[in-house]
Design brief:
By secondary structure, the chain is α/β, with parallel strands linked by helices. It is built from 14 helices and four strands. It is elongated.
Length: 292
């Protein structure tokens, strides 16, 4: 982060001046502007970082860009300008998080990048994209169980601790075979962003009859979007009301034309919330953003 580097630089200058000239009477007066500058850097660090990244957008390792083009259709279809912005967002997310592995010796860089790409996709139309509440990403190889959920699953959020947990192999399978599988990464990261934005189900579930009764009506509509009505019990039976945003966003990006036909009002609401229309694959943003 630019602000952190600038802060360390100013601190080093102040320490050097103090050590070299600590016996001189003018030293405190020289240090005061530096200490004031340090305080300003701390207070305005977000604005400084935003300015720096807008002027010098970070770029990804070319080898990772190749992986992104191969495994992430959302990125591959973007125009050149938006690809640069997408890369910059991944790099900024990467620098902002901590990474923990289970069942693996290291957190593979390509898997890390693909997880962050899902986060960048969800929030690509928004300026508040850093998922600041979520500090730690935990990676399992396969489906896992935890003290909170005593059955095997592929994604989980710990709201109090700001932790996102995902299983690598099911995530990749869902991304490679989206028609057959399911992208749990985009589901969980959409829920993570929903938590930060305090989005409620009534903010996007608007189609007549889809948000009534015990909630199954809406899930049935989503199953229709995905062409999985015959497999409703097996594939949608475990989703609760707190999953509505995650599963809606996953379907919204994968099947936008069908989503628009089956749930037109909800499609419009999600488009406004996310500031995206995924039917425009080269540039899905509806409203232009100021920042990178």
């Amino acid at each position: 982060m630019f602000a952190a580097v600038l802060g360390v630089f100013l601190l080093a200058i102040a320490a050097t001046i103090y050590l070299v000239f600590k016996e001189e009477p003018f030293t405190p007066w020289v240090l005061l502007p530096l200490l004031f500058s340090l305080a300003c850097v701390y207070i305005f660090k977000a604005q400084l970082n935003k300015w720096w990244y807008r002027k010098f957008p970070p770029r990804m390792d070319p080898e990772l860009v190749k992986v992104l083009n191969q495994y992430f259709p959302y990125f591959k279809r973007l125009n050149t300008k938006e690809k640069v912005r997408f890369e910059g967002r991944i790099e900024r997310l990467k620098a902002d998080k901590q990474y923990v592995t289970k069942e693996l010796e290291i957190f593979p860089e390509d898997i890390k990048m693909l997880i962050l790409a899902n986060a960048a996709q969800v929030t690509f139309g928004r300026e508040d994209f850093l998922l600041e509440h979520w500090d730690v990403f935990v990676l399992y190889r396969q489906a896992f169980h935890t003290p909170q959920i005593q059955e095997f699953h592929t994604g989980e959020l710990h709201y109090e601790d700001g932790v996102v947990i995902l299983a690598a192999d099911p995530m990749i399978e869902g991304m490679l075979q989206p028609q057959r599988g399911y992208n749990m990464a985009i589901h969980q990261l959409a829920k993570a962003w929903q938590y930060e934005q305090k989005i409620k189900n009534e903010d996007f579930v608007h189609d007549e009859g889809s948000n009534s009764g015990n909630g199954e009506n809406y899930l049935h509509k989503l199953a229709e979007v995905r062409g999985r009505s015959d497999a409703f019990e097996d594939q949608y039976g475990l989703f609760s009301e707190e999953d509505y945003f995650g599963v809606s966003v996953e379907h919204f990006f994968l099947m936008p034309e069908q989503f628009k036909q089956v749930l037109p009002k909800t499609f419009q609401a999600l488009s406004e919330i996310l500031n995206q229309d995924p039917r425009d694959k080269a540039n899905p943003l509806i409203r232009k953003l100021e920042e990178v």
